[in-house]
Specification:
Elements lengths: L1 H41 L1 E6 L7 E6 L4 E5 L1 H5 L3 E2 L7 E6 L6 E6 H4 L1 E6 L7 E7 L3 E5 L4 E9 L2 E8 L6 E11 L3 E5 L4 E6 L2
Parallel strand pairs: 4-6
Antiparallel strand pairs: 1-2, 1-5, 2-3, 5-6, 7-8, 7-14, 8-9, 10-11, 11-12, 12-13, 13-14
Length: 200
């Protein structure tokens, strides 16, 4: 009786584990598939510019530890190398399907800093945005807009802010980066164009 009871208990545990595994496997698999599809659809890779970079090649050590050697010839010709690149810089790169060609290169290190423009209301002062390491964003001399965070998503910059006096609701706006170099940052969406100079 004891032996058969023990065997029945083990069989029940194995059966439940098997069923549980199957039940969990489907959502996990679906989650992995969905995630894989999302990553492949986005094709953005984050990492550090490596020492093997050259005039038309970007060596990138990704956050996952892979080392990629990417052709940037097409990106250069299309004006899609934003902010340049130097060894040790933090990069966000939009890749082609086989991960050999960079279609868009954004230098996140160059993106960091204080960016200002003449106040559109009167032009007598400067307003702007400070983009800090770790995805932190802050307003520069703006009383109505409080910037909170920034990040690169799908090769575009996403900025989260709060408009004071407008219900204090958070807004998330996504922009295409048109220009980025040591002194200039220009980004736009369908409604707005922001042209900044670096505050020194």
């Amino acid at each position: 009786m004891k032996k058969s009871g023990l065997m029945a208990f083990i069989a029940a545990v194995m059966l439940l584990s098997g069923c549980g595994g199957e039940n969990r496997q489907t959502p996990d698999s679906a989650g992995e598939d969905s995630s894989t599809v999302y990553v492949n659809a986005e094709k953005t890779v984050f990492g550090i510019c490596g020492e093997g970079s050259a005039m038309n090649t970007l060596q990138m050590i990704t956050d996952s530890g892979d080392t990629l050697s990417l052709s940037i010839t097409d990106a250069k010709e299309n004006g899609k190398v934003l902010g340049g690149y130097a060894c040790g810089d933090r990069m966000a790169v939009l890749l082609n399907d086989d991960k050999t060609v960079a279609q868009l290169v954004i230098n996140e290190t160059t993106l960091l800093g204080n960016w200002v423009m003449p106040n559109p209301l009167d032009g007598s002062s400067f307003v702007g945005i400070s983009l800090k390491d770790g995805g932190i964003a802050e307003s520069i001399d703006q009383s109505t807009i409080v910037y909170k965070t920034w990040r690169i998503v799908n090769g575009r910059i996403e900025i989260q802010s709060v408009r004071e006096g407008g219900g204090d609701e958070e807004e998330i706006n996504v922009y295409d980066i048109v220009k980025l170099d040591a002194d200039s940052l220009v980004y736009k969406n369908e409604e707005d164009l922001f042209e900044y100079g670096r505050l020194k």
